[in-house]
Design a protein that fits this description.
mainly alpha; Growth Hormone, Chain: A; two-stranded antiparallel sheet; 75% helix
């Protein structure tokens, strides 16, 4: 059986290779995916409550420049890159992705303690780096567990359900931060304390409820194959048809994906609303992501994941254009939040589903980690570069330059996929 990453057949099975059309089974969601979604929900309440106040905390409360925030946001985007591939590889080699994920979630939990007691640029940068390294450790093994539990015909929808639960937390976290700042002006330390409590809950659920059964599933499926051995990590293990092309496209587009914090600072700079309302911008984006995640995943499974992935970056381009308008009012602000939510819904889980289709089961964690590393490094470069561009050229000019470059990169990505239908054997 073969799967195409092209949309020419709508992402459906290649009829010449698979034979007569078959009826897909009804969609059923594994409880493991639900529990992983709950873990992500608790963790995102923790992380996003901090992320929602970090731009103001750094530039307002600590009085640092946008260059300093760009460096911190770049660390936020890219520090996880140093461990993602290794974490995915360890997950593949051991067959125990749960415990690799526990290590990542646990490190992020410990970083929350640092936020409670530390201040200043270097301390915040180090704490953010520790938190993001934890994210880098946990993401690939968690997505490998989701892929193993999902029905192959409904990969994008299963990832969409997980991302929906994840973004309930991502929307709740900034809302909690908003309520705290409304009740306690400059109550940043209280936000950090609440963030730590939710991180502890997430780790507890993962340890106590989520099973570690991926090794048993693989043994049942690959009973005739020799046992997996520890082997040197080689890039040649990832030479699957279409995977390199996908990595290039993801990196090209990622290097022009500036952090959400910069977009929100741009909106706040334009509209001059009170700082207490700032966390609600994060709530709006994550609520939109929550709204779009499952429908977009369903569309990607039915009509093709590549066009949905590219269309998501088209939504990001439209967001840049709206954010760059000199005077647009509340309607444009709401439009930016909806477009950002649509962008994440069309790219985050969809990219993971694409990699899951293209990689063989024994290389899945490594492939997912590699894709996430490409995205993290490219977005790290985008955030750091945009901070300098904002400082030197001003916010309006900076966002206009990035919008033009993203349009060119999106056209290049379309050409990169055009005329090619790489296929890989389905797990």
């Amino acid at each position: 059986m073969y799967i195409s990453i092209s949309d020419r057949k709508g992402g459906q099975r290649d009829q010449a290779a698979a034979g007569p059309a078959t009826v897909h089974p009804a969609f059923r969601l594994s409880p493991v995916i639900i529990w992983l979604g709950v873990v992500s929900m608790m963790t995102d309440i923790s992380s996003e409550s901090v992320a929602a106040i970090l731009p103001l905390y750094v530039t307002g409360y600590l009085g640092l420049s946008t260059i300093a925030f760009g460096v911190i946001d770049g660390i936020n985007q890219g520090a996880s890159a140093i461990v993602r591939i290794g974490a995915g590889w360890v997950s593949d080699r051991t067959g125990h992705p749960k415990y690799v994920a526990v290590a990542g979630y646990g490190l992020s939990m410990l970083a929350r303690v640092g936020f409670v007691v530390a201040g200043g640029f270097w301390a915040i940068a180090a704490i953010v780096a520790g938190d993001r390294i934890g994210k880098g450790i946990r993401t690939a093994p968690r997505d490998a567990m989701i892929s193993a539990e999902a029905q192959p015909e409904y990969l994008a929808r299963s990832f969409g359900v997980h991302r929906m639960l994840d973004n309930i937390g991502a929307a709740a976290g900034p809302l909690i931060a908003f309520l705290i700042l409304m009740l306690i002006p400059n109550g940043f330390s209280t936000v950090f304390g609440v963030s730590l409590a939710f991180a502890v809950i997430g780790v507890a659920v993962l340890l106590l409820v989520v099973p570690d059964r991926l090794r048993l599933m693989r043994q049942d499926r690959d009973r005739s194959r020799p046992a997996a051995r520890w082997a040197q990590l080689r890039w040649s293990r990832l030479r699957e048809p279409g995977l390199a092309r996908l990595m290039v496209a993801a990196g090209l587009l990622g290097v022009l994906t500036i952090g959400d914090g910069f977009i929100y600072l741009l909106l706040q700079h334009r509209e001059s609303f009170a700082i207490q309302w700032f966390p609600l911008l994060f709530v709006g984006t994550n609520a939109a992501f929550l709204l779009f995640a499952v429908p977009i995943g369903t569309i990607a499974d039915r009509w093709g994941k590549v066009p949905v992935f590219l269309a998501g970056h088209g939504a990001l381009l439209a967001c840049y254009l709206l954010a760059g308008l000199p005077a647009a009012g509340i309607a444009a602000t709401i439009g930016c939040l909806l477009l950002l939510g649509l962008f994440y819904a069309a790219t985050d889980g969809v990219l993971a589903a694409l990699v899951s289709q293209l990689a063989t089961p024994d290389k899945l964690g490594t492939a997912l980690g590699t894709a996430q590393t490409v995205v993290a490094l490219s977005r790290m470069a985008a955030a750091s570069g945009f901070g300098v561009l904002w400082y030197t050229a001003g916010p309006g000019t900076a966002i206009a330059i990035v919008a033009v470059l993203l349009a060119a990169a999106l056209a290049s990505a379309v050409l990169l996929f055009r005329g090619s239908t790489p296929k890989v054997q389905a797990p």
